[in-house]
Amino acid sequence: MSKRQLFTLEFPVRCSPTILYGFLSSPAGLQEWFADKVDEWEGVYSFTWGNAAPDKAEFLDSEEDKFVRYRWLHYDKNEYFEFRIEKTEISNQTILVISDFAEKSEIKDQSQLWEYQIKELFHRLGS
């Protein structure tokens, strides 16, 4: 098995960091766009898609309106996926930066999956 590597994607968003943060950090917000069902128990989030068994992720860290970081329980302890909310200096535009890990050969597919998910998020945000 080859080593998974970190990659990042950036998406300009037309909404406030506070609203965006709610969609990235709460089970109700994540259920709006990321998975069909999201539950949280003692810092472990269960994400369910369709009739599949839930995928579980541990909540690692966050800073309100800035970032939230999770770690899939079935991956290496050093790997995570993160949603970071940044503002551009000149235009003050909100940017969502996603960091994730994938095999080098799977980064393109994983990026396309994130792009699909983010389109759903934008639809929910009305952005």
Q: In words, what does this structure look like?
A:
The protein has 127 residues and is of the alpha+beta class. The chain has one domain: Alpha-D-Glucose-1,6-Bisphosphate, Chain A, domain 4, CATH 3.30.530. It is 28% helix and 41% strand. It contains 3 helices and 7 strands; from the N terminus they run βααββββββα. It has helices at 17-25, 27-33, 107-125; strands at 4-13, 37-41, 44-48, 55-63, 67-72, 81-87, 94-103. β2 and β3 (44-48) form a beta hairpin. α1 packs across α2. The longest helix is centred in the last third of the chain and has 19 residues, at 107-125. The chain is globular and about 40 Å long. The mean pLDDT is 94.
Task: Tag the structure with descriptive keywords.
alpha+beta, 7-stranded antiparallel beta sheet, Alpha-D-Glucose-1,6-Bisphosphate, Chain A, domain 4, 28% helix, 127 residues
Question: How is this structure best summarized?
Answer:
Helices cover 28% and strands 41% of the residues. With 127 residues, the chain is an alpha+beta fold. It is globular, with a radius of gyration of 14 Å.
Q: What kind of sheet is the major sheet?
A: 7 strands, antiparallel
What kind of oligomer do you see?
single chain
H/E order of the elements?
EHHEEEEEEH
| Helix share bin | 25-40%
End-to-end gap: 39 Å
Lateral arrangement of strands in the main beta sheet: 1-7-6-5-4-3-2
Shape: globular
Query: What would you call the structural class?
Result: alpha+beta
Organism: Parasediminibacterium paludis
Domain START-like: 1-126
Protein name: START-like domain-containing protein
